[in-house]
Amino acid sequence: MKQQIEQLRAELHRHNHQYYVLNSPEISDQEFDAMMRQLQDLEQAHPEYYDENSPTQRVGSDLNHEFVQVLHQRPMLSLSNTYNKAEVAEFYERVRAGLEGAPFEICCELKYDGLSISLHYEQGRLVRAVTRGDGVQGDDVTENVKTIRSIPLMLKPNGDYPEVFEIRGEILMPWTSFEQLNREREAMEEPLFANPRNAASGSLKSKSSAVVAHRKLDAYLYYLLGDTVPCDGHYENLEKARSWGFKVSEGMCKAKSLQEVYDFIDYWDEKRSQLPVATDGIVLKVNSQAQQRTLGFTSKSPRWAIAYKFQAEQAATRLLEVTFQVGRTGAVTPVANMEPVLLAGTVVKRATLHNADVMEQLDLHLNDTVLVEKGGEIIPKIVGVDKNARNECTGEKVQFAEVCPECGASLIRIEGEAAHYCPNDVACPPQIKGRIEHFISRKAMNIDSLGPETIDEYYRRGLVRNIADLYDIDVQQINGTTGSREKSARKIISSIAASVEVPFERVVFALGIRFVGEIAAKSLARYFKNIDALSSATVDDLLQVNGIGQVIANSVVGYFQCAENQKIISRLRAKGVCMELSESQLEAQSDRLAGQSIVISGVFTHHSRDEYKTLIEQHGGKNVGSISAKTSFVLAGANMGPAKLEKAQKLGVRVLSEDEFINMIETR
Ligand code: IVH
User: Fold this and answer.
1) Ligand 1 centre and the CA of 185: distance in Å?
2) Residue 433's CATH number
3) CA-CA distance, 372 to 374, in Å (whole number)?
4) pLDDT per position as a tens digit, 150-197
5) pLDDT at 62
6) Per-residue pLDDT at 437 exceeds 90
7) Helix-strand-coil percent breakdown of the chain, rounded to 5?
8) What is the pLDDT of residue 58?
9) What is d(CA 522, CA 532) in angstroms, rounded to the nearest whole number?
10) Last residue of some domain: 309, 329, 350?
11) Greatest Cα-to-Cα distance within the chain, rounded to the nearest angstrom
């Protein structure tokens, strides 16, 4: 027995780390919860094997040491989970007994599947945002949280809110943003996020708040705390909070009976698929705070609240074949092709297998009965194989491809990377077409009269083999012999021609250098100013640029070392594609702030915070997040936080006003 308990603990410790620290779970939440319950039961039955470090003893940890850690004023507890109505009924009865028969109401809410956040407001202003961390202390992520549009930085004037209060809620990435982000990452051949929760958590921990702003996060608030909150009712307090400007769920109601609680559960179990964000259950809370106090807390969770978790939908089907997809930069993804099966309202017949390690772990054989899940994930995944169902019809173990299915080149696997690559970037068709599709895309050259189908056709007809070929196509070639498509052919040619006006920073993005996304492209363009400087930059030069790390730097150098790429760039240049910053962009630049690290803090009147960031970069400076001895100065607006001011003074860092800063960059 002891051995079984210890094995479970070890497993749970590992999965906990995968989930909370690495943001990369290997098992579904349901499997994790099931294991945790098993351990809880065993520990309860065998108190002699108590261990204060057991996974059951902690609420979980998402601490990240790159942020300042702060203690929570009130611990952030979690909720105990229930999985069926009988357990909900037990909770209801426990509450009834605890309140000695007094009437009570239950506030029913959706359980949002993101990451919890604690927001502090003083005099109607957001002063601090802290992640849950281990429940006792969390990371100060105020700067990142401020980029989330639905979180009010200032509350509506004259509201009847307390002078000082805390409000807790969930940070989420809406499905549409999640899908868009994964599409972008797929195009950049970056690893995809498994679900919106991981995407939200990965985003919020980003060191650059520009990246966070780009990620389109959202937040719902569900718990108001403070020494003086307006009402006794939790529901009523949230309605107040809504009136102060907070986003509070519309799907919240007070139930007066267990039946009304069940109705709420049934309603949302079905309707939740229509919500813009992920939910994984229902939260039930005793509404009156006086009654909440009567019921109190256990060491881990309140006795007055409970979560009811929805079942993740799963289906069993047969594995027919594993095919391999080649992306724009040659990364090869294994895809399971299965007998079509109905899952969460849609027919599923393909599921991603991510990479060779995932495939190996599943130990897939052809004809296997596989279990497909679409929990918080948009892309269905295979979560297990029914090994008992294997019989004489079961085929061979599925092996990862050795050669590229598109061009036959031998695949390579770079040490330390999960993905296999096709190294034939010059002649492998999906890589060529993918690069051209990226080049014409909206955020790159925006040649919107072309699309993937046309690119595919031009490729098959031999009209294009690289991005520079686009500028050589003429109307006759597109038109073919029939002449019927002349009008659209002219439109295509003129939109290709018009793309030479696209500014340099988007051209850098359009080149499709691996790992160089929109933001990195912008920084590179602004820093190096033209393609010649960029293409001759060394890794060390590149590392000087804001937001450019080793991986991007190596990739940029590798890109420009390739003779084929140099040829393409000179052809693009000859066609007039913009290879340098414009006159006006250059005029706005100087090296007045070269080598300086600048912190921006407070509220500004002349420019927005983002505009100041751009100005700093245009003048060669670096905008950094937190004050340290290396900070050159702080650009301070109104209401700079007192803690920051004190830190600056202690370290002897200068604090400049908006006007002083503008003077500094404008003096010639
Ligand atoms: S109330 C003491 N309400 O679920 C009560 N939590 O395991 C604290 N969650 O950490 C939480 N939706 O991240 C509450 N409507 C809701 C929620 C909610 C999602 C999350 C939250 C918490 C976890 C509980």
Assistant:
1) 30
2) 1.10.150.20
3) 7
4) 888 888 777 899 999 999 999 999 988 998 898 888 777 677 787 899
5) 27
6) yes
7) 40, 20, 40
8) 38
9) 16
10) 309
11) 88
Question: Is any atom of ligand 1 closer than 6 Å to the C-beta of 619?
Answer: no
Residue written as tokens 């094997």? 49
Q: Of all protein residues, whose CA lies closest to atom 6 belonging to ligand 1?
A: 111
Does 403 reside within a domain? yes
240 within some domain: yes
3-state secondary structure of 279: strand
pLDDT at 30 over 80: no
| Catalytic residue list | 111
Question: What pLDDT score was predicted for residue 377?
Answer: 55
Please tell me if the CB atom of residue 109 comes closer than 6 angstroms to any atom of ligand 1.
yes
If one counts the domains in the chain, the total is: 6
Question: Which residue out of 134, 167, 223 has the highest number of ligand 1 atoms within 8 Å of its CB and is therefore the one to mutate?
Answer: 223
What's the CA-to-centroid distance between 232 and ligand 1, angstroms? 19
* Residue identifier of the C-alpha nearest atom 16 of ligand 1: 111
The model's pTM? 0.56
Report the distance separating Cα 531 and Cα 536, nearest Å: 8
Nearest ligand 1 atom, CA 116? 13
Question: Is ligand 1 within 6 A of the CB of residue 170?
Answer: yes
Ligand 1 proximity of 166 Cβ (cutoff 6 Å)? no
State whether 163 and 243 are in the same domain.
yes
- Burial (CB < 10 A; 0-12, 13-18, 19+), residue 92, is buried
The model's confidence at residue 332, banded by pLDDT at 50, 70 and 90, is: very high
What is the structure's pLDDT at 306?
98
Rounded to an integer, the average pLDDT of 550-561 is 94
Distance from C-alpha of 111 to C-alpha of 288, rounded to nearest angstrom: 19
Question: Considering Cα of 507, then 510, then 514, then 520, what sign does the dihedral take?
Answer: positive
The residues, ordered by sequence, that sit 6+ positions from 193 with a Cβ below 8 Å of its Cβ are 178, 181, 182, 185, 199, 202
Residue 14 has what pLDDT?
A: 72
261 assigned to some structural domain:
yes
| Separation of CA 659 and ligand 1 centre (Å) | 44
pLDDT in tens, 203-255: 998 877 777 778 888 999 999 998 889 999 999 999 999 888 888 998 899 99
Q: For residues 426 and 539, what is the distance between their CA atoms, to the nearest angstrom?
A: 24
- Residue owning tokens 């079942």: 311
For every residue of 568-592, DSSP letters joined together read HHHHHHHTT---B--HHHHHT--ST
Beta pairing class for 218-225 and 164-172: antiparallel
Beta carbon of 336 within 6 Å of any ligand 1 atom: no
- The response to whether residue 116 sits with its C-beta less than 6 Å from ligand 1 reads yes
71 part of a folded domain = no
The overall average pLDDT reported for the chain is 88
Does position 20 have pLDDT exceeding 60, yes or no?
no
- Confidence at residue 548, expressed as pLDDT on a 0 to 100 scale: 86
Both 220 and 347 in one domain: the answer is no
